[in-house]
Amino acid sequence: MDKKESRLRRGRQTRIKIAQLKVNRLSVHRTNQHIYANLTSPDAKVLVSASTAEVEVRNELAGKSGKGGNAAAAALVGKRVAEKALKAGITEVAFDRSGFRYHGRVKALAEAAREAGLKF
After folding, report:
1. Would residue 120 count as lying in a domain?
2. What is the 3-state secondary structure (H, E, C) of the chain?
3. 86 contacts 117 by C-beta, under 8 angstroms
4. Which phi and psi (to 5°) does residue 28 adopt?
5. What is the pLDDT of residue 68?
6. How many domains would you assign to the chain?
7. Domain that holds residue 71
8. N or C: which end of the chain has fewer CB within 10 A?
9. Measuring CA to CA, which residue among 99, 59, 97 is closest to residue 80?
10. How many angstroms separate the first and last alpha carbons of the chain?
């Protein structure tokens, strides 16, 4: 079993539990260069999304070292996804870390989303 299979296995049980609860899900995916956050409804429709690949975020991160692959960029994405969700009328979500450890960029994104007003 390689690293990706292990991560997907860890994330599977979380997704099953969130599907049973029938709540909106804030899922996080990270790569070496970017971090992505999607807010999906129980019927698997993407309601809100934000990432470091967006033009506005890239412009804000321009000139900084690391650009999209650091905790500061992740915090910015967490804040943006929370603002978009609140604008869409969504206040409570279930956090799906997709098998990634709750540490570093994933933790920074989650804490920034909480500070911006999302509850999970």
Report:
1. no
2. CCHHHHHHHHHHHHHHHHHHHCCCEEEEEECCCCEEEEEECCCCCEEEEEECCCHHHHHHHCCCCCCCCCHHHHHHHHHHHHHHHHHCCCCECEEECCCCCCCCHHHHHHHHHHHCCCEC
3. yes
4. -120, 140
5. 80
6. 1
7. 3-115
8. N
9. 59
10. 31
Distance CA 79, CA 82 (A): 5
The rounded distance, in Å, linking the Cα atoms of 46 and 64 is 30
Identity of the amino acid at 79: K
Distance CA 66, CA 72 (A): 9
Q: pLDDT tens digit string along 33-48?
A: 999 999 999 999 999 9
Question: Look-up: residue for tokens 């999209």?
Answer: 68
> Residue holding tokens 């997709």?
98
The tokens describing 86, both together, are 């609140």
In a domain, residue 53? The reply is yes
Q: Which two tokens mark 12?
A: 């599977």
For the entire predicted model, the pTM comes to 0.92
CATH code, domain with 56: 3.30.420.100
59 in a domain, yes or no? yes
